Amino acid sequence: MIEQLEWPTGRAGRSTVLAQFGAARADLMQWALTTGDVLADAVVTEMHEIGMKEARVLLSKGIREGLAALADPPPALAALLRQTETRPRYADDHLLDRASMPFYTAPGPVHLIALSAGALVRVYESPSISEVLTTTGRLVDGAERRLQETGAWHAQAMIPGSLRAGQPGYVATLEVRMLHAQMRKLALDRGYDTSVHGYPINQVDLGRTWIDFTLTGRTAEDRLGFGLTTRETADLYRYWWYIAHLLGIDARLVEGITSNVAAQRIDDLFQTVTGPVTEDSAALADATLAAVTSRLYEVLNVPRALARPALNAITRRIHGDSMCRDLKVPAARAADAWLGPVLSGLAAARERRRRDPRRWQAAIDKNLTAARTLLAANE
Questions:
Q1: Residue 336: strand, helix, or coil
Q2: How confident is the model over 132-170, as pLDDT tens digits?
Q3: What's the whole-model pTM score?
Q4: How many Å apart are CA 155 and CA 295, to the nearest integer?
Q5: At what angle do helices 203-211 and 127-135 cross, to 10 degrees?
């Protein structure tokens, strides 16, 4: 039986979830709205108790070298590392070494546009996420840095084999997890009101963000002309189950999803309890799009004067006119008309490559090599 904690007042009520999704889902959402990441949050508390300087050294060593490398690990850190070093049964060698390969059927700049105009814009639709960023002082001023940091983590996590314990993707993912835990503590210390939005960066927020890096990201790339097959999509979802495991996202929220249709069903549940868009969400969306506008030229060869209007048009194609009105993303009819044949051309060229196995594999190899090279240059 899931403990029933107080339902946040800023979210749709329990009765709404109960009517639409049933008692089991309502219970799960009540737990998820009021729970952060028990293991990582305990580590942050422990770090403050034993001293941050010493604790950071232990944390870094444990993440990079493993629990066995720590002679006398503090109990909370040991518990976290045991969880992350214990692979779920589905996380076999094929998943770790091959399941992310469909990601490399598209070039890096396409992923950047999908990440910014797609995933992150929708992450920031959440009023609880924008409230955390406001409370911790990282609302708009840090938008470009967050895009860079998130893009670097995302790129590293997708490298085949990189999620094995101690490898760069694993390390980067656990660092993101610990950043979330530190942000939770900071938000709570600065007066974040849990009675309105629930626990800061709670399991609903984490699960919804996972959806944005999967379903929303895939939708964005499809609308840019870089769609995947059913099998490729399923492989990427399974890969992201393991990313969720490392990020501390409860398996009940995401595991078992292997298609966009299944992801949409859980997203409908998350959206029901997310809450309405705020002014802060609109400010975050604008700052994120501004940070990536110049890169649109690399993807679509967009005339520079059309770059931001074209990005606005892409954003509206991804998220729809209604949500974009709430986020104050303006319509861009001329840019949208220009985009139509360009995106159709990209999709047609992709299908021609797919019909030629040698060209298709060469494109994948080229994109993977480019990703490795960029990551190495940024080390």
A1: helix
A2: 887 776 656 667 788 888 999 999 999 999 999 999 999
A3: 0.94
A4: 16
A5: 110
